[in-house]
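tool=predict chain=A
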Amino acid sequence: MPEFSPGEGLLLLSKGIRNYVGGKPLIVSYEVTLSCNCNCRHCDLGGLRQAEQRMAPADYAAYTRAFASPLVQLSGGEPLLRPDLVDIVRAVKNAHKPTYVIVVTNGALLDRDIYLRLKEAGMNQLSVSLDFPDERHDAFRRRRGLFAHLERTLPELADIGHGDIIINTAITKVNMRELRAISDLSERWGVTVSYSAYTQLRTGDAEYMISSPEDLLELRGTIDELIHLVRSKKHIANPETVLRDTFAYFENGSMPRCSAGKRFFVVMPDGALIPCSLHRQRYLSQSEMVHDFSSSNACGACYVAIRSYTDKPLWKLLFKDVPSLARRLFDRYVSL
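tool=predict ok
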């Protein structure tokens, strides 16, 4: 059985509503390191950072108490490169309750031992990046053998029965025809899949953007197919609204009214605050960031996952997205 219960879900929902109304963040993403053991074609990170200044687990606990967001994401770089990641998860989980803790990884260092230690420390969700349903993933991530490792490891971890593993696929021009295959693969592996949108803000490379009328027409058909699956199956995490908005982002070339710095933001390894992983102006406090960045932010050049789940009117979150996510959680909870 998963360790995240419907009762805990209600507590998190209440906390989220309070934060939304009170102007506090819904999710804080801790980039615990900028080092990475991959060199992905759609990312500006990659390689190891020597002498990187890093916060300690106690620092993450202090930040979590101060921000009091219902969701916390631990990412990078590659967070599994940090030998104290389990301690960070435990510190964050116990700092301010309830807190839903997500660990985002490329999976190269993932195994049964580290997964179970992260679970014991309080991890609620493990998000593993996947760009292709086969060895093309290795070439895209520039990491030989990565897909084979995930193919061995993720079904093994899914069999443990926590129901907490999500594959995250960023939709690009080169993998848009593989989205259904990735969905099928996720179902076979016994994990969930979540789709997000590529942005060229990281690299300046428009090669992976979907913009031509022909590609948009094909993507619309695929999105419609995925929405049909959302209505009939349990393994796709995205609410229908997120999938439709993701297509609208590609169709329009942007998504306006970004709330980076307000409803979500990023904390760098050394403790500096930045509005998002794509705008790296550094701030000492959220109030400074809101004043200097968020109040005049006109950027709409991304629709990444962290934004797609938080950057909406409250009524849409409460009456469209939350019921969809709650049904998926309930189905998973009672069926495992």
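Strands lie at 27-31, 71-75, 100-105, 125-129, 165-171, 192-197, 264-267, 273-274. The chain is about 45% helix and 10% strand.
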